[in-house]
């Protein structure tokens, strides 16, 4: 197995045809048999992989040039919003307001720090972000679709715990930051796999266009508070938990690598399914 194939398998699982801006091979390699995979793998973990005899280190969160092009994947919110009935022009203007500042902020980073260590040690190193989040989004959306609009928000939360060991094994809980567990579930959107959560403006757009329950994997408290003030009695925001939700998308990939005969060691937050 080579690093190109490691990336290709993730794209296949997510039905993506090109590598998104927030994912990249930072140091290529071949004849990979033992893989260290984690949600955050940086220079120290690359060195650890070398010391422990791994053939590749795979991070989930963006590193290297994937941080510079991260802003591009925020555009995925536009397609997700449009699919849920938000006018495309409105969706575009919401995303444009966050993606350009994000590009500028990310351009300030020392983007080559971690890849430079991988090159020095000749340790194959890649990060796969959006493809694995897309796998997780689809899995969670399938569960949400199965619950039915007449169920309660609590019914969705129970179904998520039921479906995914990652949520049962997490030290965090699935939280309802806006609305309440006894609210009617109504129309649900799992808003995930678009770089990061859309905060207040994206959730607001969903609520204003017929969505009753928005699922985020994380949400800043000030965004949640603002949404609570405006929609707390009528709508719901369910926050499933960052690391548990990332694990829901990463585990099918790990399983697939093992099916391909690789030895895979998950670290850095990945919860068992
Ligand atoms: Fe993720
Ligand atoms: Fe994440």
Question: What does this entry look like structurally?
Answer:
The protein has 13 helices and 9 strands. The chain is an alpha/beta fold. The chain has 2 domains: 149 residues, NIF3 (NGG1p interacting factor 3)-like (Udp-n-acetylmuramoylalanyl-d-glutamate--2,6- Diaminopimelate Ligase, Chain: A, domain 1, 3-Layer(aba) Sandwich); 111 residues, no CATH class. It has a 5-stranded mixed β-sheet with strand order 1-4-3-2-9, sandwiched between helices. A 4-stranded mixed β-sheet has the order 5-8-7-6. Helix 1 runs parallel beside helix 8, helix 5 packs antiparallel against helix 6 and helix 8 packs across helix 13. The chain is globular. Bound molecules: fe (ii) ion (2 copies). The site of one fe (ii) ion has 3 residues, from loops. One fe (ii) ion (FE2) binds next to helix 13.
CATH homologous superfamily grouping of the largest domain: NIF3 (NGG1p interacting factor 3)-like
CATH class of the largest domain: Alpha Beta
Summarize the biggest pleated sheet: 5 strands, mixed
Q: Count of helical segments?
A: 13
Beginning-to-end CA distance, first to last residue: 25 Å
Number of beta-strand segments: 9
> What is the 3D shape?
globular
Q: Architecture of the largest domain in CATH?
A: 3-Layer(aba) Sandwich
Enumerate the distinct ligands: fe (ii) ion
Average residue pLDDT: 98
Order of strands across the widest beta sheet?
1-4-3-2-9
Walk me through the topology.
Layout: H1 3-14, E1 24-27, E2 34-38, H2 43-51, E3 56-59, H3 65-68, H4 70-73, H5 76-83, H6 88-106, H7 113-121, E4 125-127, H8 130-147, H9 153-163, H10 165-169, E5 175-178, E6 188-190, H11 199-208, E7 213-216, H12 221-231, E8 236-239, H13 242-259, E9 263-267
Parallel strand pairs: 2-3, 2-9, 3-4, 6-7, 7-8
Antiparallel strand pairs: 1-4, 5-8
Helix pairs in contact: 1-8, 1-13, 2-7, 5-6, 8-9, 8-13, 11-12
């Amino acid at each position: 197995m080579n690093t190109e194939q490691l990336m290709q398998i993730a794209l296949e699982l997510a039905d993506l045809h090109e590598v998104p801006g927030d994912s990249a091979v930072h140091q290529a390699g071949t004849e990979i048999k033992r893989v260290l995979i984690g949600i955050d793998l940086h220079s120290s973990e690359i060195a650890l992989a070398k010391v422990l005899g791994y053939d590749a280190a795979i991070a989930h969160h963006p590193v290297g040039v994937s941080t510079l092009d991260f802003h591009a994947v925020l555009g995925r919110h536009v397609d997700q919003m449009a699919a849920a009935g938000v006018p495309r022009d409105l969706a575009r203007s919401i995303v444009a307001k966050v993606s350009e500042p994000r590009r500028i902020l990310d351009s300030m980073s020392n983007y080559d720090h971690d890849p430079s260590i991988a090159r020095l040690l000749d340790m194959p190193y890649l990060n796969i972000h959006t493809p694995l989040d897309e796998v997780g989004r689809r899995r969670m959306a399938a569960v949400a679709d199965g619950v039915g609009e007449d169920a309660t928000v609590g019914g969705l939360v129970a179904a998520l715990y039921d479906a995914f060991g990652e949520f049962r094994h997490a030290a965090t809980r699935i939280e309802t930051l806006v609305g309440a567990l006894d609210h009617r579930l109504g129309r649900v959107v799992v808003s995930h796999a678009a770089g990061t959560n859309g905060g207040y403006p994206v959730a607001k757009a969903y609520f204003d266009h017929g969505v009753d329950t928005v699922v985020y994997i994380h949400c800043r408290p000030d965004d949640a508070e603002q949404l609570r003030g405006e929609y707390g009695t009528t709508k719901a925001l369910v926050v499933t938990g960052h690391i548990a939700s990332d694990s829901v998308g990463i585990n099918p990939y790990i399983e697939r690598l093992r099916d391909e005969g690789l030895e895979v060691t998950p670290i850095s937050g990945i919860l068992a399914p």
